[in-house]
Amino acid sequence: MAITLTEAAARHVTRYLSKRGKGVGVRLGVKTTGCSGLAYKLEYVDDQEPEDVIFEDHGVKVLIDPKSLAYIDGTQLDFVREGLNEGFKFLNPNERDRCGCGESFRI
What is the pTM of this model? Predict the structure, then answer.
């Protein structure tokens, strides 16, 4: 499988990297936290690591550490605006449950 981005997510990342003036893409991973056990982490990346698994979609590189890949393989990253809020949304087919506050998930 792979990690994919919607066109909206790719546009947002491209725009942000352009404003920063540097960067190779975004790093997507998971960390242990919250009431359900796992939370997504997303950051802009200036350099890739030798162990990174790299996916490219709509011209944007998504870098994943191998340990996180098992939890997020098949995920689509979207960028949505809902009312006054905007942000990334993770569409992960591996998710089995999400906590009530929306901060963490379980596989």
Answer: 0.85
